[in-house]
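Quality-control log, excerpt.
Job 1 of 2 completed; input and output follow.
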Amino acid sequence: MPVLYIHDFIPSTAAEGPGQRACLWVQGCSVRCPGCMVPHTWDQRKGKATDTHTLAQTILAVPGIEGLTVLGGEPLDQAAALLPLLQTVKAVGLSLMLFSGYTKAQLQAEGCPDKQAIMDLCDIFVDGPYVQALTDFSRPWVGSSNQQIYFQTPTYQHLENKLSDIQNKVEIRIDENGGVKINGMLPAEKFRLLRQLAADLGKQEI
């Protein structure tokens, strides 16, 4: 089975797209947007090599989720390894949301069959790099106004004209060893402050 280099995986979250979803961050990014909030996901060599069959079974075993969201890094840098995983997820009826730093036009012009197949699988496809000068958090899930949210199937098309009603969410997880994980969408300065507060909380004895 293909090996996918991943940064992190959360079995269930309400902060990364519509409803309750599994969320996968791939490791490695060729886009490398200036001002990126997660530059630690750029170097693929720092990722965890993961068997996609095992990962698919892990996702399918999560109770109560309606879909999978895939972020990065840049997911389409590993399109060949990612495609079988996403086909398995879709085959059982889960929805798919995916973020790419490339635009649909760029990807279509490239003509890579694996990348096109992944785009075609998506119920929601979010494209475009984060542009620091265009920072905008008025819409959910994205950080700059140039990024486009494409509702490609009927599954979530009812949300297309209601984005202003959807609030961004942030989740904090503190494990038993005081390790902190934060996911969701916030302005960078608020994200850094929240991360520090959570880290301080994680060090306290309960």
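Job 2 of 2 completed; input and output follow.
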Amino acid sequence: MSHHIKGQGRNQITLFPEALDDFVTKENHVRVVDAFVDELDLHALGFNRVIANNTGRPGYHPAALLKLYIYGYLNRIQSSRRLEKGSHRNVELMWLLERLQPDFKTIADFRKDNGKAITKVCRHFIELCRQMNMFTDAVVAIDGSKFKAVNSKHNNYTPNKVKDHIRRMETHIENYLSRLETADGNDKVDAVQTSAAEKIAWMKQRVAELKELAVQVEAHPDKQLSTVDPDARLLKTQGMNRQVCYNVQSSVDTKHHLIVTHEVTNTNDRGKLADLTRLTQQALAQKNITVLADKGYYSGRDIKATQDMGASALVPKGDTSGAKKKGIFNRSLFKYDKDRDLYVCPAGNELPHKRNVEEGGMKLKVYVDHIACRNCDIRAKCTQSKREPRKIRRWIHEGEMEEMLTRLKNAPDTVLIRKQTVEHPFGTIKMWMGATHFLTKQLKNVSTEMSLHVLAYNLKRMMSIVGSESLIEAIRA
């Protein structure tokens, strides 16, 4: 006789059928999704078809489809076809949708047609977290991460890549023509000529297509063209590697690791600090916040704009000078004397303030001493010019940047805190996405998809922090 636990017979009839609600526990996250969506004013958020027409075939209420998507992204089911299958066999989805079974086209169209409203739902949940006093410290870490687009690297073209393809095709045409000449006098010359002629014709057509593509690439503002997803860009990832992707910017609370705000872009990190800071201040309804970022965000004007908005920025400065390769002194070796407003060079000579200039919209002060530089014994290590002396340019707001770097130096744990804070959500969401990352095309659709991922991440994070039942109580309060 077996001592294993035995299941119930498949043909067993029960006198009192079990209710669907019995299969969903009180702590199940599906109840959080149900309560959260039920409390939303979908019409005010901008969802389509909240108020149904009196005529025509009835449609699904947007609340049901929104619940379906939030549940799907919470459980790593982003595909509309898989969500359709889940509504047929998943007990939790049967409970959540009250046994509704929308088809995949309806599910996909809902995400496509309600992108802005879904983004507002993501912001609404952050507002709920703020009301629950989750952001009392007002310290956020900002970073960007590259997420693969639907467009492959093969279908992305730059001017050099198109030229290489054209040159390769023309070389192949020349090789086939030379093979035709070699085939003369051969018994199989007719078969060779026919095959080669067909390939040459195809390659000539391909060259014409590439030349037309080269014109489009040159006319593009970014000098690159993605043929599958026109908004995706070829960006640097790690080291010198490049990938056709989107750059997702986010600010993450250092205390609870909640994503306060996010933005999908197709450019690099430089110049995004002030924009993310402004969005974070709006989300937290507070201007006095502290922003942590890596050296990729270091830009004097961007940091100045961030501080002018009332935020405190802590951004390390990377050394981008080419002085070392040139074999001359780095600018950092010239010490600034604040009291006398001058620089002291490595040779000990003083470089006083001579004039003011404006370059790239920035007001700069120029420090130089022609006589001391001309008679200096180590001039060759200071400048490669035989006529012009070494000049030091200083931005008029450089003192504020130096004060920030001093604060950063006095808080050595800042770099570690930033990494531990902002890298965790990116890694988690990429794991949920799988190897393909985004499933949709174009920036507006990718932004909608990312909003669903962020909402799912924050929901799961809050359930982990306060528990499902406590979160439901806060939602209904």
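Post-run check on job 2. The longest strand covers residues 242-253.
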